[in-house]
Specification:
This protein is mainly β. Helices cover 6% and strands 40% of the residues. The radius of gyration is 25 Å and the shape is globular.
Amino acid sequence: MQFKYFVVAMVLHLAFCQDDDFTHSVMLDPDENYALSWKYDDETITFRAEVKTNGYIGFGLSRNGGMKNSDVVIGWVKDGIAHFKDRHTGNSYVAPMVDKKQDWTLVSGSENSTHTILTFTRKLDTCDKEDLKIGEGTARIIYSWHDKDPVSESELMHHTHRGSRSLLLLAAAPKRSQHPKDTSTFDILNPKVSVPSHKTTYWCQAMKLPPLKKKMHIIKYEAVVQPGHEGLVHHILVYGCRSRNIDDKFHGWGGVCGNPNMPRDIRICFNVYLSWAIGAEAIEMPDHVGIPVGTEDSPTWVVMETHYDNPQGKSDFVDNSGIRVHVTSSLRQYDAGIVQVGAAVTRDQIIPPYMPEFLSTGNCLGQCTKEVIGQKSGIKVFGSMLHGHLLARGIRTRLIRDNVEIARLGEDDHYDFNFQAIRLLKKEITVLPGDTLITECVYNSTGRTKITYGGLSTRQEMCMNFIAYYPRVDLTQCGSQLQYKIPPKYSSLSTQAWGYFLQLKGAHGFRKAFEQIAHNSPVKSSCQGLRRNYPSHAKTFPVPKIAKSLVKDKKACLDNGNLVG
């Protein structure tokens, strides 16, 4: 079928012109040549690409950040005429093919002496098998450009520049409120740490917080990553210490986390206070909440845990990265807190190899929330940061009340280990005393031949969610550890036999049976506050049951079997 070019008259305007109508914007490439802005509503999304070129530009959605099986558009402006087509790629590296159904629509196109600017729009769900659905989770964006225009629609030259980046296209609009005049900052930094040459290092740095004469609120915090170390610093957690009487001689102590020489008072600092991960921008608190500091029940000592990802095993990294904290004495209405929910980080989390999908869970039990959340009105969740490692493909936290799922406190079906931004919820969600929070992680272990265990290493796995909420209660960790209950038919198998069969390539049925055993086994509760363990902590309970799951609204399409999102 032949298609006529879709053309519009060129309207010259300045490159990188500002349009307040667009709610989100980002530079896609590190050299800041490709600027992307966008906005969306319940049905559609509109993009504006402003690229430093007078050739063609490409933009697309990918399943994994690669070019194969992607949904793309390519456009350019030549002789005052804008050219634009909706395309897709197949399962091989060939030039993008024109879609039979043109779902992307050009709004405008222009160029000046330095830049090409295209604005285009489409429905979030086009019901077209040659397109990818745009959903709430992580979107893998691919982009490209060439220094010259194509000779014709069918003669596209190979791009001269390309890249990929993960984004939350349907995230809440970023907050741009002004801070109070008395806002000040202090830094929590690593002091020239010589990063070990191991592929994965968790470095712990202890320090006493600056003395404060009165209560203040943290209203913003952000990573301060040393230039050139953007790929090295994977995530940072700041833990509050239970003890307020740590000897001052330990201020500045640093070492590998879990080191036997780690001072005892420092070793038990595991209450999450602040969290940041690669891909996250500055974290702004909503206008009505702030994280308290300088109070009797807030930490005076912290341990900053920095995850260094050093796959090449380099030994010449010296790092000064950390966290910058913005505080104000103009107190907000509510104190905020962060609680870590999910699976305990132990070798009891077992992920067999060869599995395209394997589900692990961690439970913040109703017994714990009932003990901790005193007020009948509950707590209100306003943000979350999902966390897994290399095998994780999807993570979500389900809110269960009276055995019925009523909400999701964070969800991403396309989780990206290298993009773990804190996500503000579009609507605050209330958690009541007795509610259960189940964090589920789906792993793809088809590239592994051995069992993957839970642990700190990047090659090991985690399954958790850091939830931001208010009003603050004394809860910092709420999770569970599996207590495997082996059915009689498997009771004669030794530990070695279990390991053998789980790793036997042809034993898929055995691995599925193990997955069911894990889902039905009891769990040991973790229920901890800043300076206390609650009665349910370390006790074993039956795994929570869900009588009714949340059903998401799905758009009826004639054929959406190939849609993702």
